Amino acid sequence: MTEATAPTSAMRFDPEIRQRIAAGQTPAISARHLQHYYGTGELSKQVLFDNSLEIYPGEIIIMTGPSGSGKTTLLTLIGTLRQAQEGELFVLGHSLHAATKSGLRALRREIGFIFQAHNLFDSLTATQNVRMALELADPGAGRRAQTTRAQAMLEAVGLGERTGHKPKQLSGGQKQRVAIARGLVHQPRLVLADEPTAALDEASGRQVVELLKKMAKEQQVTIVIVTHDNRILDVADRIVNLVDGSIRSDVLVQETAIVSQMLIKCDVFAHLSPRGLAEMADHLLCETIPAHQTVIREGEAGDKFYLIRTGRVSVQRAAQSQPLAILKEGDFFGEMALLTGQPRNASVVALEETVLYSLSQDKFRQAIAQQASFESEIRRSLFDRQ
Ligand SMILES: Nc1ncnc2c1ncn2[C@@H]1O[C@H](COP(=O)(O)OP(=O)(O)OP(=O)(O)O)[C@@H](O)[C@H]1O
Ligand SMILES: [Mg+2]
User: CA-CA to 356 of 20 to 30 Å: which in 203, 216, 259, 363?
Assistant: First the structure.
């Protein structure tokens, strides 16, 4: 029998990832209580505060946030280009604190870096620049094979016609694409990209993003993209928002959309805008209830609202032999006691393993208060029309 899980914060439920966790897959990146300071002594300045994050193989994460919020710093820590002073960081199964110098070098070969400064070699052609990465990562491969791979990679980013050009003969966007090809050519297991599409027009940006998506989905490459470019948001499995050095939100995009659609069917949330729904979804806690376990008990005080993500529950009263109702995916319960302040008027029991989202009484009340102001606003506007 499955154990009930402790509620996990926010939108950390994703059917595929849950399966992988259950199968014992380790995250590609795992940060625990990560802190970072620049400078020492009196000049020391903390820029990352207690950040925890887990990213699984094949996930595409978009990290965003205001300038100076610490995005590049976090990316360089993950990329082993800097060492965090406090907290733990595991990358592709290696603890960065415990790693030796040669261990870190080997690890870096499994990472593809696409950073803002291109650092292309002016004297080398596009192909030669890209091939450099292969020579470092896979020195044993034959030169001709390396050249073929470098050219194929340039082709994939839309630079098939420019393979023999040197950086000076290329536009900013074309140079950026050479840098992208160089970051990807050695088939890294992890790609860290800092504003990869900033210098690109819409079509080239899309081409690069599609390529990253293909790598993630077909080869389980993990991809972290720092960006302000909202044209590429649709590629993200998750959006992580960093503000003032702290992860402010970390949401699964598709899951938020599914849950928002579920919430809107409940009167209490029906007035919320997509943004309001997403915010509400962000406050939900996810828990797994094994079959036959009671979720709420008749007569007890109500403290949460529940939404069924998967599974089925039975609503029953002690005095009655037949259940009052069987609820399934997308149904919700527990709102009556929160609305009326009365004890729970029925018990709810899981009929099978059931995944629930719950919302605290406080957040639930907040939604009602917004609804009240929404309604009074409408009343006023109707009244003013007269
Ligand atoms: N090498 C450094 N030495 C000292 N302070 C630094 C260094 N690099 C960054 N900082 C400071 O750390 C903070 C976070 O910087 P970081 O570059 O990580 O932000 P960012 O979110 O990537 O910003 P942007 O969107 O502008 O690229 C900023 O206050 C910045 O001034
Ligand atoms: Mg930055």
Answer: 216
